[in-house]
Amino acid sequence: MRRLPVYFLIDVSESMVGEPLDQVQEGIGAIIKELRTDPYALETVWVSIIAFAGKAKTILPLTDIIQFYPVKLPLGSGTNLGVGLDALRLELDKSVKKTTQDTKGDWKPIVFLFTDGRPTDNPSLAIENWKKHYGSSAFFVSISFGKNTDKELLSSISEHNLTFEATDSNSFKKFFKWVTASIKATSQSIADSNNQVIDLSKDPNKVVSKNTQEYSERIDENVAVFLAKCQNNKTPYLIKYVKASKQTEIPGLDFETLYFRLNGAFNIDEESYTELSDNASQGKQISSEELLGFPTCPSCGNQFGFSTCSCGNLLCVGDEEVTTCPWCNVQAKFGVGEGHINLNRAKG
Ligand SMILES: [Zn+2]
Ligand SMILES: [Zn+2]
Hints:
This protein is α/β, with parallel strands linked by helices. The protein is built from seven helices and 17 strands. It folds into two domains: about 5-210, von Willebrand factor, type A domain (Rossmann fold, 3-Layer(aba) Sandwich), CATH 3.40.50.410; about 225-345, no CATH class. Helices cover about 25% and strands about 30% of the residues. Strands 3-2-1-4-5-6-7 form a seven-stranded mixed β-sheet, with helices on both faces. A six-stranded mixed β-sheet has the order 12-10-9-8-14-13, with no helix packed on it. A hairpin with a 5-residue loop joins strand 13 (about 305-310) and strand 14 (about 315). The chain binds zinc ion (ZN) (2 copies). One zinc ion (ZN) binds near residues 302 and 316.
């Protein structure tokens, strides 16, 4: 039986924390559920999930959709696309059956790359290697969530590039329906004609907009993420802000100011976060003046989830007399800060 291998290469960098990651996780579950009701897909489709941040990891090796089990996507620091592509290539080397003189191998694999940010490594060598080995023997579809991706770079990997700008849950659902339809159509073309045609056209514009942006267009990062630790439980959490703008309130002046609005604070799994993060610090800072809203601690509920220790790290602070920093163990009495400070941003 010739299989149709489908790979999901998923950016699990910090900026995906919260809703986007949940949506992708649910979306993949929905894709599989839907494919299981399709006789053609049932016969041919196998899926694999590879996550990448600073490092990459195969979350699900190539699996029959009947055997598929729901996965929990990890999070990590960094968006090392080169590392992700190398992991993808090795996974294909390992799992895709090649055609030999005697037997027909698997159908052309389909890869869906989901990403929401610019690479934090230099992926040129990995792209070159990918194209050399799989440029013509796999379909590669890149999907950008939001505007903060490098379209030029993505289109150097393959001509199938889509941008998905709305990120509310309804659009996510429609988008995953579109992915499902593409996979179904491909397995149907195999069943009908024994000939593989990838159909990415099933009206994607209703769901996603094709990349038509000028390559030179550069848009500022729209998410700021911070890593903090709970003083009481010693567990890490991410605090996420999303860029917003407002008109000045001073009468007679007409200009916009940009700021970051609190999106939420999210507990993360320390073990997988450490496993998928690279250790290089990005050294980018942001002033607390640009941030609007501060979270409580998502782990213990302490009122101040965004306090800074003299060691430079973030922690939660409550009404205790003496605070112990979960990063450096220094004990201090924390007051409510005056003025603004510069904060180290996570890579995203
Ligand atoms: Zn706490
Ligand atoms: Zn400290």
